[in-house]
Amino acid sequence: MKTRSPEFAMVATLAILWSIRGVIGIKFVIDREECFSHNVEYDGDTIHLSFVVIKSEGSWHYAPDGVDLVVKGPSGNQIHDFRDKTSEKFEFVAHQSGIHRFCFTNKSPYHETVDFDVHEAHFSYHDQHAKDGEAIFPCFLCTIYVS
Hints:
This protein is mainly beta. The protein has one domain: GOLD domain (Jelly Rolls, Sandwich), CATH 2.60.120.680. The chain is 11% helix and 46% strand. It has one helix spanning 6-21; strands spanning 23-30, 33-40, 46-54, 67-72, 78-85, 87-93, 98-106, 112-121, 144-146. Strand 4 and strand 5 form a beta hairpin. The N and C termini lie far apart (43 Å).
């Protein structure tokens, strides 16, 4: 009998937890600029996003500066602009369905590691009920596209 590797078990567990939470998260290292896209399915969906810059333990290149994040809607309109932040949480209502872009900029001369999470909710409050012909989609299978 062949047993599965611990790595397979870890990946399977993470996949199950990821689908239950309805949250997309990514950890990446940024040199200068990194952009991500997320397809918002429905007008009026609430988008929750958060990020944190994970500082390295090496004090020889610690910089107190954060990163910049610009959030743009499908038509290119700027939704929000964060400057020099090491962490932030933000929520907005998508007035258009379609591809929303999240572009991070690192002005530091050193690489930074960023933990970035996006959650899309069809309703702002969990106690709201669907109306006739309307379904609730909490974004269990959303995708972030790296551009």
